[in-house]
Amino acid sequence: MTFLVPFDGSYLAEAAVARAAEYGEVLEEDVVALSVVPAEESYAVTKGWYEDGEDEPFSVAYVADKLEDGVTAIAPAATFRYERVDDGMPMAVAQRIGTVAEELRPSVVFLGTDDVGEIAEPVTSVAGGVAARAAYDVHVVRHYAPPSSPSVRLEEGPSLGE
């Protein structure tokens, strides 16, 4: 099985990668961090992925390399993947994440977001568009401090029917 983490370099996306990596280690699950990068320089500038005047000219691959460095710094064992899209609209990004999720069939998608209300409004939110799919569980990460591994316990307890 796999844990999938949409990653845009934001503080809470970093938290989601950290949380998924910790759970992945304890539960022996692979972690895939996925960045969806629109082919619009202005989008990359707005997100803080690229600055005018950088030594390297703008390209999706250049931005993806920077995002991969961020993932590797947090979770060296995670696999990084990026997808290029033409449209930076939230639903286009969410659709690409959903397409990759259909391919990978993750057991859990870790979403870093502090606005759970956006998940209920998937039209304007990448997180909402990803959470709306019923093919996987969603773990919403709203705080950076993940639990330490010893606190992630796999204790057997009574089933819901008991």
UniProtKB/TrEMBL annotation:
InterPro entries: Rossmann-like_a/b/a_fold, UspA. It comes from the Archaea. Residues 2-142 form the UspA domain. Pfam families: Usp. This is Nucleotide-binding protein, UspA family. It comes from Natrarchaeobaculum sulfurireducens.
